[in-house]
C-alpha cells in the first residue's frame, strides 16, 4: 500500500528510524480507534517525544497538515516530525492529559484558581483553531494535554475539519453517526449528524 505523500513543508520534519530509540523501549501512553500513542526518546530532538502510530494513512496526512498549520500556538500540541515509512507522527511530549491528572489526584480537587487557569488556556487554544477555520470535533479530557509546568495543550486533530466541510458525520459507519466521543456530543448534533461542523460543537464539548 502506497504511503501518503509528504508536502514540501513537511520534508524538514522527516524523522528516520535511526532518530528514535528501538520501539521495544517505548511506553504506551494512549490508544484509540485510529492510533496508538507512545512515549519515546528522540535523538534528533535530544529528549522525549510522543509518537502517534496511525492505522489509516489518509487520516495521518490530514492530521499532519493541520498540525503544521496550527502547532505554532502555545496551547496546541506541536509537531516534531513525521516518519512516513512507518505511519508515525512525532509530537511534543506532555506528562499528563487532564483525564490522567484527574485520576492521579483522585478525590483531591483541583483548586478553583487552577481550574480557571486551565479553562483560559483551553479556550485560547480552541479560539486559535476557530480563527483558522478548524473545528476540532473531539474536545475532551483525554485530548487536553498538560505539561509539568501546567500548560494545557489541545491534542489529537485526527477528527478535525475545516468549518466549510459539508459533513460532520462518520461516513464509514453503516448508520450515519456524529463524529467524536458520544458523551461530549451536543443534542443538536445527535439530531442532525450530517450537518456541517460548527464552532458551537467545540464550545459544547468544552463546557
Overall form: globular
What percentage of the residues does DSSP assign to strands (E)? 15-25%
Terminal-residue CA separation: 41 Å
CATH topology of the largest domain: Transferase(Phosphotransferase), domain 1
Average pLDDT works out at 81
Number of separate strands:
10
Structural class, by secondary structure, is alpha+beta
Main sheet: strands, sense, barrel: 5 strands, antiparallel
The H/E string reads EEEHEEEHHEEEEHH
- CATH top level of the largest domain is Mainly Alpha
What is the helical fraction, as a range of percent?
25-40%
Q: Tell me the strand order in the biggest sheet.
A: 1-2-3-5-4
Distinct helical segment count: 5
Oligomer: single chain
State the domain count. 2
Q: Spell out the CATH superfamily of the largest domain.
A: Transferase(Phosphotransferase) domain 1
In angstroms, what is the radius of gyration? 17 Å
CATH architecture of the largest domain: Orthogonal Bundle
Low-pLDDT windows of residues: 1-9, 171-178
Give your account of this protein's structure.
ATP binds at residue 52. One of its GO terms (cellular component) is cytoplasm. This is Protein kinase domain-containing protein. The protein is of the alpha+beta class and 207 residues long. It folds into two domains: 10-92, Phosphorylase Kinase, domain 1 (2-Layer Sandwich), CATH 3.30.200.20; 96-206, Transferase(Phosphotransferase) domain 1 (Transferase(Phosphotransferase), domain 1). It is built from five helices and ten strands. It has helices at residues 57-70, 98-105, 112-131, 187-191, 199-206; strands at residues 27-31, 35-42, 47-54, 79-83, 88-92, 96-97, 134-135, 144-146, 152-154, 161-162. It has a five-stranded antiparallel sheet, covered by helices on one side. It has a three-stranded antiparallel sheet with strand order 6-8-9. A hairpin with a 5-residue loop joins strand 8 and strand 9. The chain is globular. The termini are far apart.
Amino acid at each position: 500500500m502506497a504511503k501518503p505523500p509528504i508536502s514540501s513543508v513537511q520534508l524538514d520534519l522527516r524523522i528516520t528510524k535511526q532518530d528514535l530509540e528501538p520501539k521495544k523501549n517505548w511506553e504506551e501512553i494512549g490508544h484509540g480507534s485510529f492510533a496508538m500513542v507512545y512515549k519515546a526518546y528522540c535523538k534528533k530532538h535530544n529528549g522525549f517525544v510522543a509518537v502517534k502510530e496511525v492505522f489509516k494513512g489518509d487520516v495521518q496526512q490530514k492530521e499532519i497538515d493541520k498540525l503544521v498549520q496550527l502547532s505554532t500556538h502555545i496551547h496546541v500540541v506541536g509537531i516534531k516530525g513525521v516518519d512516513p515509512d512507518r505511519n508515525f507522527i512525532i509530537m511534543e511530549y506532555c506528562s499528563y492529559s487532564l483525564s490522567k491528572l484527574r485520576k492521579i489526584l483522585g478525590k483531591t480537587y483541583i483548586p478553583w484558581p487552577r481550574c480557571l487557569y486551565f479553562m483560559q488556556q483551553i479556550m485560547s487554544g480552541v479560539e486559535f483553531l476557530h480563527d483558522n477555520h478548524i473545528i476540532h470535533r473531539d474536545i475532551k479530557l483525554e485530548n487536553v494535554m498538560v505539561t509539568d509546568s501546567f500548560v494545557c495543550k489541545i491534542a489529537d486533530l485526527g477528527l478535525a475539519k475545516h468549518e466549510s466541510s459539508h459533513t460532520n458525520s462518520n461516513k464509514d459507519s453503516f448508520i450515519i453517526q456524529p463524529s467524536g466521543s458520544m458523551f461530549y456530543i451536543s443534542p443538536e448534533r445527535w439530531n442532525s449528524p450530517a450537518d456541517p461542523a460548527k464552532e458551537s460543537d467545540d464550545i459544547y464539548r468544552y463546557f
